[in-house]
Design brief:
binds 1-hydroxynaphthalene-2-carboxylic acid; 21 strands; alpha+beta; Jelly Rolls; about 20% helix
Length: about 350
């Protein structure tokens, strides 16, 4: 590849004239915006220990009352993007949110899509467009773009969950905003009941649901059972993985980020295909050694790490006698829609 002219090679008076007219020469920057073969990535392999962050989150419970916080969150920020950018990757935001007994996080709706993966505690709930979703460890609750959501807590111990949003992308496209609302009335009918069994969907009076998001709660007990059934049914299968989908369409559960649950068999080592999207890994049960390019992380329960795109990832179940269960979030729906999705094998 030929080397192109540098900015410093241009006469200063010419550069000043360009600047005055808001003009920039392309050729000194062409190679950096179009690097050869593999994109430049700010996203670094990064790891967040739950045991290490938990005391700081509990301290936030004392330092930041709900009236002053609205959402009491410590953001899991990737240093490669600069901590102040609050990004885990180009398109993903991650945060650990704390709700204490009796607290309420007021209703709002916004353009970014969010999901929560419950990490600790019982008795909290999120109400999504009137549907009251109980939170239990490992449950996935969607709050897709535009849907009202608020969090409450009737239990007696702290509840913590992992928020995953496409906020960095939505903010970058200058489309991120929120609307505050009133406390929601709970309406009857829960998607996770009506769509309890895969393969059948509600068809009252022969009509299928027209809602864009028929299911907003995916209980971990069901996802775990699906993984164990898949593993038993397909002993030869390497990647025992399920994807969270919209059961009416079979498409990804949300528009921009993709969500999956993966089971590693006892002692299993699994090399993932090298693909364009960045991936987040969160340990639901068990323990996993994760190597991301040249970095290596030991994920214990409730730990989280992330891998940039175009990077080799190898997962190793740290236990020889128990499965490891991971929650994954990635940017593949976005990449597919943009036409830039790649699986390099
Ligand atoms: C949000 O609405 C929630 O509703 C959590 O719990 C984290 C981070 C950025 C923007 C909106 C929530 C958020 C958020």
């Amino acid at each position: 590849m030929t080397e192109l002219g540098r900015l410093e090679d241009l006469p200063q008076d010419y550069r000043d004239d360009l600047t005055r007219q808001n003009l920039v020469p392309l050729w000194p920057s062409l190679r950096s915006v179009l690097p050869p073969k593999t994109p430049a990535r700010r996203t670094q392999p990064a790891f967040w220990s739950y045991q290490a962050l938990r005391p700081l989150l509990m301290r936030a419970g004392e330092l930041a009352p709900m009236e002053k916080a609205e959402r009491r969150v410590l953001v899991l920020a990737n240093p490669g993007h600069g901590l102040e950018k609050m990004q885990a990757s180009a398109a993903m935001y991650l945060g650990m949110q704390l709700l204490l007994p009796g607290e309420w996080a007021p209703s709002h709706r916004h353009t970014p899509n969010a999901v929560r993966l419950v990490v600790e505690g019982e008795g909290a709930y999120t109400t999504v467009n009137g549907e009251k979703c109980p939170m239990a460890r490992g449950d996935l609750i969607l709050t897709p773009t535009g849907l009202w959501h608020e969090h409450g807590h009737d239990g007696d111990a702290p509840v913590v969950w992992l928020d995953v949003l496409d906020l960095p992308l939505v903010y970058y496209t200058e489309t991120s905003y929120a609307i505050e609302g009133q406390r929601q009335s709970v309406v009857p009918g829960r998607g996770d009941e009506g769509y309890r069994r895969g393969g059948v969907v509600p068809a009252p009076a022969f009509e299928r649901a027209a809602r864009a998001y028929p299911v907003v709660r995916y209980p971990w007990a069901d996802t775990r059972a699906a993984l164990l059934a898949l593993a038993a049914d397909r002993p030869e299968l390497q990647a025992v993985q399920v994807g969270y989908v919209n059961p009416e369409t079979g498409a990804d559960a949300q528009n921009i980020l993709g969500f999956y649950a993966l089971m590693l068999r006892p002692g299993q080592t699994l090399r993932l295909p090298v693909r364009s999207p960045a991936v987040v890994f969160h340990q639901i049960e068990g323990a996993t050694g994760v190597s991301v390019g040249e970095s290596a992380f030991a994920l214990n329960e409730a730990d989280t790490c992330c891998a940039p795109g175009y990077t080799e990832v190898v997962l190793r179940n740290a236990a020889a006698d128990a499965p490891s269960f991971l929650f994954l979030a990635d940017e593949s729906p976005l990449h597919r829609k943009l036409g830039v999705y790649e699986n390099r094998g």
